[in-house]
Amino acid sequence: MKLPDKKGYFGQFGGKYVPETLSVCLNELTIAYQKYKKDSGFKKKLDFYLREYAGRPTALYFAERLSKHLGLKVYLKREDLLHTGAHKINNALGQALLAKFMGKPRVIAETGAGQHGVAVATVCSLLCLECDIYMGQADIQRQAMNVLRMKVLGARVIPVKSGSKTLKDACNEAFRDWVTNVRNTYYLLGSVVGPHPYPMMVRDFQAVIGREARAQILKKQAKLPDYLLACVGGGSNSLGLFYPFFNDRKVKFIGVEAAGFGLSGLHSATLVKGGVGVFQGSRSYVLQDKFGQIKNAHSIAPGLDYPGVGPEHSYYKASQRAQYLAVGDAQAYQGFKLLSQLEGIIPALESSHAVYYLNQLAKKHKGKTVIVCLSGRGDKDLDIIKHYEAERKI
Ligand SMILES: *Cc1c(COP(=O)(O)O)cnc(C)c1O
């Protein structure tokens, strides 16, 4: 299996739809990545930091009470146990180390909810890299705690006041900065989106999730699972879990997107509700109106609030390797409560979308084995929960 091809295509999706100046930056990055991913010094360092600093391998936990409750065999891949509380550190460590090996002393990144920004600020502190984070002005106001975290860690947070003042505008600003300052600057993108080589590179750095899970499940029950289940924002935790099982054709992949307020709206469900278009440098599914304008996404989960999705997911959808569904805010809230109260694990609201979908799976597939990617922990979301409950008098 060779995905993507040399030009960065997954079937008809992916590629590199960018101006010439940016293409030069991306080519330099592609060559460096191809070189260092095979370099034993690079691999050794990355393994070291993943193990000693981030806390890998993460547990594959058999959720006994949840399994009994649902009539399924549910295993949780515990990315919530990692340093900084989510899977994003896997990618941040990989790319920051690449920046270091490339001799770039400055790292820039975009962030929406601030989770990726915190992961980047963390690894830049660790590896002694200068760090500038672009963040939409609207997001800065909503995510004061993560802004503070980034600043405490020594990063600069640069407010973006253009467009909708959210994640996609922050991405555009970061690309602009990169083109101007590429000589000393590395752009650390946060999910399996954007132009080639990012979708491939971020997937490779997140694939440690699926490699571990595959070995762990074989050790625990000597057979592969029936289903893999994960939430999809840009698509990195899900692809990280899915990709190492790609050739295990009997293992079914289910990606859960955010439907926002309700199933009629499908406010963030890019694969379920969107159309094919070019967005932020690659061809993929995207949420757009009938004039091709990008729509703003909404979800109760800050990390699922993105109108695009990675091209490899679009390819999995088109080739039916994976199935994609949408779950709304109210259901995600139920998933959040279910896992908290049955297992003593407070999941991130993003992961709660996948947890909720277990109910649907259980209706038709009793007794099957499922691995759920628990992409992050929910402590960061308690304020949202507080407001959600107060508004509804729960
Ligand atoms: C950012 C985030 C996501 C969504 O991003 P993907 O690239 O789709 O994984 C999901 N869960 C958590 C906890 C996150 O922080």
How would you summarize the topology of this molecule?
Blueprint: E1 9-10, E2 13-14, H1 20-36, H2 40-54, E3 60-62, H3 64-70, E4 73-78, H4 88-102, E5 106-111, H5 115-127, E6 130-136, H6 137-142, H7 144-152, E7 156-160, H8 167-181, E8 185-187, H9 198-206, H10 208-221, E9 227-231, H11 236-242, E10 252-260, H12 270-273, E11 275-279, E12 282-286, H13 311-318, E13 322-328, H14 329-343, H15 349-364, E14 369-374, H16 382-392
Parallel strand pairs: 4-14, 5-6, 5-8, 6-7, 9-10, 9-14, 10-13
Antiparallel strand pairs: 1-2, 3-4, 11-12
The structure holds pyridoxal-5'-phosphate.
Structure description:
- The longest helix has 17 residues, at 20-36.
- The strands form four sheets. The protein has a six-stranded mixed beta sheet, sandwiched between helices.
- The chain is α/β, with parallel strands linked by helices.
- The model has no long low-confidence stretch (mean pLDDT 95).
- The chain has 16 helices and 14 strands.
- The chain starts with 8 loop residues before the first strand and ends with a helix.
- Pyridoxal-5'-phosphate is lined by residues 86, 88, 115, 191, 231-238, 303-304, 348, 350-351, 375-376.
- Pyridoxal-5'-phosphate binds at residues 86, 88, 115, 191, 231-238, 303-304, 348, 350-351, 375-376.
